[in-house]
Amino acid sequence: GELTSSVLPLTLAGGGAVTALGVLWGRPLREAVRSGLAVAVAAVPEGLPLVATVAQQSAARRLSGRGAVVRSARVLEALGRVDTVCFDKTGTLTENRLRVARLVPVGADGPDEEELLGLAAAAGADGDDQAHETDRAVMDAATEHGVASDGDCESGLPFAAERGFSAAVRNGRLVVKGAPEVVLRRCADPGDVREQVQRLAGEGLRVLAVADRAVDGCPDDLEEAAQELTLRGLVALADTVRDSSAAAVEQLGAAGVRVVIATGDHPETASAIAAQAGVPDADRVVTGAQFARASDAERLRMVRETAVFARLSPEQKVSLVAALRRAGATLAMTGDGVNDAAAIRLADVGVGVAGAESPAARTAADLVLTDVDLTRLVDAIGEGRAMWSRVRDAVSVLVGGNAGEVAFTVLGTAFGGRAPLGTRQLLLVNLLTDMFPALAVAVSAPRATASPASGGPLAGHPLEAVLAAGPQRGFAREVRRMVLVRGAATTAGATGAWAGGRLTGPRGRAGTMGLAALITTQLGQTAWAGRRSPLVLATVAGSLAALVAVVQTPGVSRFFGCTPLDPVSWLVVLGWATAGTAGAEIGPGLIERWRG
């Protein structure tokens, strides 16, 4: 719609020029105004909004067959510009199938491994419906080893990211389980376990600290009561990196997309998992506390220089997304949990993952990956870029062709005294060159914008060329360039054929030759733009056949103000159309080479 509006002044200027030139040549005012209005109306590219919509719907349909459901077709525009992907770790890069991998009792008089596992299980609520995946993993391990929680839960405090631990009261003891840095601060004697925590986290394990103390009765405020605890040990949980994570990260990098990790896990765990997934600079980590303390300027520096953000609360994930966008990133946020929903909603493209633990993430997402293969996100980004490529070609077909119509009509009026094309002829041009050919280009396979990569992560990908070309930038500038080229080529082809007809025959024959060359030059450029698409070629062939039928059928030809052409005239038309098409495709490259 915005592009259509921006073209309107040009069409009005063209109509005004035709009217003014007609008056200067002494034509009746009514005739001059009628010709000007016909040019102005015919040159409006009213099909632009439909072309964009059809291109989006076509891309969304293709993605649905590749395991990605687009909830809003408009998001494909943003997908083509995505240059940064922010992954949640648990359940996205990893499988979110946590299992207890190691139990580390603390102290000479501390519990054995089974007792430690029982304490860890006791810190969660009773029942199978655990509120957090770590609780589920601990309970599964306790069940597998036949370890039962010690007594019924008299009072419980579920895990919350801002609190960092869960707690429960059983048989006169308050048992706490949570992030080591949080639990250790609440212990009377935390001992020297931080090195063990670092070592376990460095192996990519999620580490929990377990502590307890005796209580009288059931405290009203468990969070306040969780002080002066006795550290009992560490529980380390493993979560396997998805098979597709490393491939997705590698392909995204090859496609010019930066990968950022945002997680609530320990910094060492986040760094280890990021390294396993192949994220560059995985050893550079910023914690949620550091990010929260930073000024706006420092946050911008952090998001530009750091790939891994750990110990983030849901609110800090939102702040991270906002900072990335302020830094100029076009961002896709991928997550699976309720703590990711707000960040997903704020990103340019929100991505949910199939099997997400919370429907909130899927509801907030613009794009939902329907299987666990993260390379589907690469497909989605590629399809978004391909859509920009198709829309660019379709827009240049529409606007460039219409610009050529206006310029040809103005030139013909300037040199001949009257518009070379009548109202019906202008409508015929639009019918044969605008809507159907442009729609065919919009839904066809994308035109290659880069040489296929020789090997590498994208080798063999159906959208290898557009992915290797990098994020879509400078769309308006590229469209303007293509419109100017196509407009000039169309003007040259039509004007050349019309001038040849004027020099060698009557005005009616010259006008028909100009009309035929105008249509043929536009269709030649459309065919070249969609030369790999059978649909585009078939549409062009149909339009050419319709043109010949209209011109050569006496009654129909008369209705459109045409004159049937002889073979020599058709050869002149084809010669100028071929020259115009070749100039549109070869000329810009020659100019660039000459400038270089």
Features:
Rossmann fold, 596 residues, Calcium-transporting ATPase, cytoplasmic domain N, alpha/beta, Calcium-transporting ATPase, transmembrane domain, 3 domains
Outline of the structure:
By secondary structure, the chain is α/β, with parallel strands linked by helices. The protein folds into 3 domains: 2-67 and 378-595, Up-down Bundle (Calcium-transporting ATPase, transmembrane domain); 80-95 and 242-372, HAD superfamily/HAD-like (Rossmann fold); 99-238, Calcium-transporting ATPase, cytoplasmic domain N (3-Layer(aba) Sandwich), CATH 3.40.1110.10.
The CATH architecture of the largest domain can be named as Up-down Bundle
Structural class: alpha/beta
Round the mean pLDDT to the nearest integer and report it.
86
Main β-sheet, spatial strand arrangement: 1-14-13-12-2-9-11-10
What's the end-to-end separation, in Å?
A: 37 Å
What kind of assembly state do the chains in view correspond to?
single chain
Q: CATH topology of the largest domain, what is it called?
A: Calcium-transporting ATPase, transmembrane domain
